[in-house]
């Protein structure tokens, strides 16, 4: 079975367009024949409430005569909710400009941000389009003008997860008043979850696109305006990172500012925006006297409430990081990144010369608990979230404590965690490691109370 748009199989009068079959797995239509499979007689069906005027319920399926060799798509559940501004991708052989070739030779992709229902409605109203059907979701309106166009109908709107792609929509339509590929375009997609590799007739279809796994790599693309910090004491590095969340406030781990007996580690300040510690001095700012505070219920044994903040004497030049709200919920298996100057192997240098990044998948509480139990670690504190357990062994290690766990959104990065600990039985960077991170969401009430108390 193949899913596509209803307007790909019937016209505006609901008359059949004569679909005969699909071509699966074709990337280049000149050199790559793909796999042709004929549609079963009477096997083309569109939604019974499809309205060709409003495009409501713009969905259809094609039953094939024989089974495809390609692996069928993973489908999101009805409760799946994309996050506003998160990046999705659409794919197809359609035009790349208004007057361009309707049937492009090679499969193309467009990375476009998801837009919430309220923003979608506002944008559609702004461009003079009618209301968006309740059966649809929106994506687009990005500064690079990426968009779907004529010939992309029926194609996918996809959310990339850890080991697979999740189709959450089918390309349906764009505002008639706009030209695709123009200034900040938006598209409406039938909210149906599926993913497969196909190309169907009538210039409609969609195609699987393999996403390269993310790996541990130097953070060379980061600039001096980056909000990540090194936490220093008496002219030396404490082996911890932090995140600037207000012009005069840095968040880090509690165990970075006090030891296991809750004795101060002597934090004196932070170095902000340093990518290469040899060639890049960053911005040094001294901590305010009495300005280092850790959570009152921090437990150095379980690491529950492993969070602290450092108030600075002067405001930083760097733009602070955005923090997740208490209601923010990461999606299982979605890619996050952690960053720091720590070791890249167990016996490696504790203070790495260059800032490094590790892309790691988020793990839900149930899976985290099962993994921690499997590796012989104790229960994960309720103030923590987990990430890791990926096949490429990306991980945080000694020297990364206090650093950020980040969710990348459309125009900014969102701080959702602070590096806390890993299972004592495991060696960081080993086979399928996992890490525990203090949850910004769980700790947000305390963070907000500190912001208010110290007028930050």
Describe the structure.
With 456 residues, the chain is mainly beta. The chain has 3 domains: 2-206, Trypsin-like serine proteases (Thrombin, subunit H), CATH 2.40.10.10; 226-319 and 445-453, Thrombin, subunit H (Beta Barrel); 322-442, Trypsin-like serine proteases (Thrombin, subunit H), CATH 2.40.10.10. 7% of the residues lie in helices and 34% in strands. The chain contains 3 helices and 27 strands. It has helices at 117-126, 365-374, 440-453, and strands at residues 2-4, 21-24, 35-46, 60-64, 74-75, 87-92, 108-115, 136-140, 156-160, 165-173, 186-190, 198-200, 204-206, 217-218, 228-233, 236-246, 249-252, 269-272, 283-294, 308-312, 322-323, 335-340, 356-363, 384-388, 404-408, 413-421, 434-439. The strands form 4 sheets. The protein has a 6-stranded antiparallel sheet, with no helix packed on it. A 6-stranded antiparallel β-barrel has the order 6-7-8-11-10-9. Strands 22-23-24-27-26-25 form a 6-stranded antiparallel β-barrel. A hairpin with a 2-residue loop joins β16 (236-246) and β17. The longest helix has 14 residues, at 440-453. The termini are far apart.
């Amino acid at each position: 079975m193949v899913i596509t748009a209803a307007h790909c199989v019937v016209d505006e009068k609901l008359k059949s367009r004569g679909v005969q079959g699909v071509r699966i797995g074709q990337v280049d239509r000149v050199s790559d024949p793909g796999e042709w499979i004929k549609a079963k007689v009477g096997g083309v069906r569109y939604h019974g409430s499809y309205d060709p005027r409003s495009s409501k319920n713009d969905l259809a399926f094609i039953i094939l005569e024989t089974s495809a060799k390609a692996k069928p798509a993973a489908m999101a559940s009805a409760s799946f909710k994309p996050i506003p501004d998160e990046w999705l991708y659409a794919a197809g052989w359609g035009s790349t400009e208004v007057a361009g070739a309707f049937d492009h030779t090679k499969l193309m992709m467009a990375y476009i941000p998801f837009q919430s229902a309220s923003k979608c409605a506002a944008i559609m109203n702004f461009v003079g389009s009618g209301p968006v059907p309740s059966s649809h979701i929106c994506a687009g309106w990005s500064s690079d003008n990426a968009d779907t166009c004529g010939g992309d109908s029926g194609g996918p709107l996809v959310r990339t997860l850890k080991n697979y792609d999740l189709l959450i929509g089918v390309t349906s339509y764009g505002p008639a008043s706009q030209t695709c590929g123009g200034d900040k375009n938006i598209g409406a997609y039938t909210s149906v979850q599926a993913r497969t590799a196909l190309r169907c007739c009538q210039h409609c279809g969609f195609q699987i696109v393999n996403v390269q796994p993310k790996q541990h790599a130097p953070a060379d693309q980061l600039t001096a305006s980056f909000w990540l910090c090194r936490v220093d004491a008496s002219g030396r590095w404490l082996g911890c990172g932090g995140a600037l969340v207000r012009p005069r406030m840095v968040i880090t781990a509690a165990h970075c500012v006090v030891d296991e007996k809750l004795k101060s580690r002597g934090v004196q300040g932070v170095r902000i925006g340093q990518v290469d510690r040899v060639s890049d001095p960053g911005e040094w700012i001294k901590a305010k006297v009495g300005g280092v505070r850790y959570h009152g219920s921090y437990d150095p044994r379980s690491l529950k409430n492993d969070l602290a903040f450092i108030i600075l004497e002067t405001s930083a030049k760097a733009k602070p990081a955005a923090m997740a709200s208490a209601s923010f919920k990461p999606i299982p298996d979605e890619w996050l990144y952690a960053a720091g100057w720590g070791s890249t192997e167990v016996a490696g240098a504790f203070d790495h010369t260059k800032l490094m990044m590790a892309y790691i998948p988020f793990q839900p509480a149930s899976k985290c608990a099962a993994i921690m139990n499997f590796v012989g670690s104790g229960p994960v504190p309720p103030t923590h979230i987990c990430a890791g357990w990926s096949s490429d062994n990306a991980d945080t290690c000694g020297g990364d404590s206090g650093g950020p766990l980040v969710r990348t959104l459309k125009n900014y990065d969102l701080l959702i965690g602070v590096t806390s600990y890993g299972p004592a039985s495991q060696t960081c960077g080993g086979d399928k490691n996992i890490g525990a991170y203090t949850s910004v969401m769980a700790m947000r009430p305390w963070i907000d109370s500190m912001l208010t108390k110290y007028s930050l």
